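Quick question about two entries, pasted in order.
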Amino acid sequence: MANERLAFHRALTDLIRAYQFRDRDLVCGYGVTVTESHAVDRLVKLGPLTQNDLADALNLDKSTVSRVVDGLEKKGHARRRPHPEDGRAVLLEATALGRRLCHRMERDRVAAEQRLLSDFSPQMLRIATRAISRIARSAEDGPTEGTPLAD
């Protein structure tokens, strides 16, 4: 069992590394940074958010998110507007241009993945999707105490 866990860890690490580099290379072609692409994605998928909520969604500090949103605003992908219930807060939202950008990036990523997964059976793809989704949810919950791998 320890060998399988180690093999899984290595495969997951390789996948994460490959996607980080792929995302960086892909996103640069759209004129935004990787962090800006993640921010506009969250704004599109979650709807208008406060700066604190976006910071939580991105796992970044508030000042970093402020700079990211500044960049997105300058590029026309996001805007700030007054919060309807809290006069001290602002809501951040994707613009129509930001939504189009998000959908275009997602479409292009899906097309690239389509080629990568072309030899997966539908059943294998469903199993992989469920496994990756479960891993992602667990990772969002934070680190867990685990049993160290045995040699």
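Here is the second entry:
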Amino acid sequence: MGSDSVVDTRRSLATQAADYLRAGYHCSEAVVLAIGPVVVPDWHPACIRLSTGFAGGVGGTRNELCGALAGGVMVIGAVFGRSELQDDALAQQLTAEFRQRFRESLGESQCRWLRENVVAPEGGLGSCAVVVERATLILLDVLAEAGVSL
């Protein structure tokens, strides 16, 4: 796949994640739903349900982890995580890298802070789209650097 088509695919996936958010999915679900089926070889639609509780900073409290970050962590786990006792260093390393880049790009990882400082002030459905898009692009960078192709 050429460089331009990879960039187009990445942008398309980020836009798709934001569109899922605008359609009513939570940030965590939007990232998982847009990226999971593309990069997880044994993807199952039930995987989306695992991300629902991360909505609104964990259960709607806005006091915890941003759902877009949580969704990305779940995708990394689905690709590189373990299903039995074995070395999980790569999954841990990629998750730490994703979190660091997320924080560098957006300033924080807490839902409430992001909503107050990054999100469009009008609020409403899809207001976190900028966070979801940026998180998706960061996630795709981390996955590509780890050898995951689109």
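Reply: The chain has seven helices and no strands. Helices lie at 3-23, 27-39, 47-51, 67-80, 89-106, 111-117, 129-145. Hope that helps.
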